[in-house]
Amino acid sequence: MTLHTDSPAMTDDPFLWLEDIYGERPLDWVRAENALTEGALVTPDFETRERGILEVLDSTDRIPMVGKHGDHYYNFWRDAEHRQGIWRRTTWESYASDAPAWELLLDVDALSAAEGMEWVWGGALFLRPADGEPHTRVLVVLSPDGGDAARYREFDLGDLAFVDGGFDIPTAKSRITWAGPDTLHVGTDFGPGSMTTSSYPRTVRTLQRGGTLADAEEYFDVDEDHLMALVLHDSTPGFVRDVAVDSIDFYTRHTYLRRDGAWLMIEVPEDASISLHREWLIVRPRTDWTVAGTTHAAGSLLVVGLEAFLAGERSFATVFTPDASTSLQSWSWTRDHLLLNLLRDVSSEIRILDPAQGWAVELLDACPPLHAVDAYAVDDEDDDAGNDYWLIATGFLTPSTLYRGTIGGDHTAVKASPSYFDEDRFAVEQHFAVSRDGTRVPYFQIAAKNLVLDGGNPTLLSGYGGFEHSMTPAYSGVIGRGWLERTTDDGRPGVYVLANIRGGGEYGPAWHRAALHAERHRAYEDFAAIAEDLVGRGVTSPALLGCTGRSNGGLLVGNMLTTYPHLFGAVSCGVPLLDMRRYTKLSAGYSWIAEYGDPDKPEEWEYVRTFSPYHLLRDGVDYPKTLIWTATSDDRVGPVQARKMAARMKDLGAGDVWFHEALEGGHAGASDNRQAARMHAMSFEFLWRALTGSL
């Protein structure tokens, strides 16, 4: 149960009772609202479209993405026959064929039936074997309800069974790493005082095989009001080491290296991201960093020898410097080279750097305009394939393709996703809207090639705008079938628009910082500017314009609902933050203070309250038609903010307000393809019917 009554404000909130997540009265309210929403939306036509979306999610022709460990390529797979999924592996020769032969490792459906628990797959952590030996042990991660809390169980890859008497960490929000064949570094819920205010591990203990969590020796700890404690073990031969991270908040941290029985802090700015690869220390500062007389720009990437740095060296090789249109999104090491994934005006660019040649740069010719292409190493520890890389290429109208390449050689297609809708009918365009402060904000428009610019097209605007997360081009059969191919009575298909507003990472950390705390409104002004631009260009009109967002994107569209209701005809608001007065008291909300501000500080509540949709609701306002949806088992944002928003809107007499809560599924809103199909179909059905006047 999550029920808090210690807030100094809003104690007169008449809907606090809905914060009792599993309480009988709140769940009765949820079931009643679900029945109303399903009664309105679930028709035979809806079920046909839902089946079409489920066909996409269950398609056996989609790319089975793999991770290489030793001689095998591992994949987790869900389809119609395997609702909860199967974990399996194959060889490279088989994987590269048209019909791979998979070895079944674990059937989650069968496991759930045998144990009477609806397990949801959360991944596998591999123990690095001794050189030349095969991989034999993993920790399998399973959630009982699709939430973030999960159980870790030791699994034997030879016996294809859980290890009798092996490691078994009970369900919690844990962070675990192998420290050897008989040792784990475990951050989990050890009891009172062991979790942070943000609901993540505060302490990490070293657990020996045969020992108990209660007796495990504490290895690292952080303050209770910090975000999380984490210890990572690097098992690379010649570079074996433990690294500890004190995550102070989402964007600041202290990183330590274990030396001579103590923790040695790596002296970089708190807001810098760092990683270690063999002899190298890599640093990406989020704000300008002046050191040894040199100023390194925010969003740049710096490399130096780790031992030299620890000895006092501060002369970095600057391997990437951002400019007004280009930002670094991620990096990955092959054995001998550094791969940089960049965005240039939200289109991908990939650079290959060679440290042996003074960080010489080569552009990888694999990135068409208005597409997203990501490169990452196949297995930097493999003697033969250490300089191989994967490429994933995708576009709004280009089904995803998986390539494999070798540094200095070519890359070739390995697998391709099928087409799920008639892409040839549509075209992708990039436009720029001008926000209130004059900033040019990009967005992608996917529309029929014969689009008539008369304001008469049903249009769906999607966005996120937070946590430096970039919204990039991607193929989606779900959007294709659920929105683009649906047509009005006069034959107009839907238009889909993806916004690249501030708060995201499309232009690096400065784009993100521009919408933090008191500047949060810039993200919402950007989104509103795109809505106005779509109307101004004749793509659509307010009555035919809908918007959708999830999580932080739910907060985004919640602000569209309350601050810009005149711009939209319908709003679909998923797993959202909405009550920004109490968000830090609910689920993992405390961990997001660095993004939004602390409502318990009066000076910060003064600006937080201006983007708290729950508090911005007013009587007598003509709000757009609204669907608010969530999941009971979401232990990240939680369902209560969605519940309270819907209840308050109904209490105010707002018009078309609909609510739906999946009784399982975690923060994703769904724990299997069937639930995901229902979630997508319900949102699309609501939006289409609300905008076209049939709801």
Automatic annotation (TrEMBL):
One of its GO terms (molecular function) is oligopeptidase activity. It comes from the Bacteria. PANTHER family: PROLYL ENDOPEPTIDASE (PTHR42881). It comes from Arthrobacter pityocampae. Keywords: Hydrolase, Protease, Serine protease. One of its GO terms (biological process) is proteolysis. Residues 494-692 form the Peptidase S9 prolyl oligopeptidase catalytic domain. This is S9 family peptidase. InterPro entries: AB_hydrolase_fold, Pept_S9A_N, Peptidase_S9_cat, Peptidase_S9A, Prolyl_oligopep/macrocyclase. Residues 8-404 form the Peptidase S9A N-terminal domain.
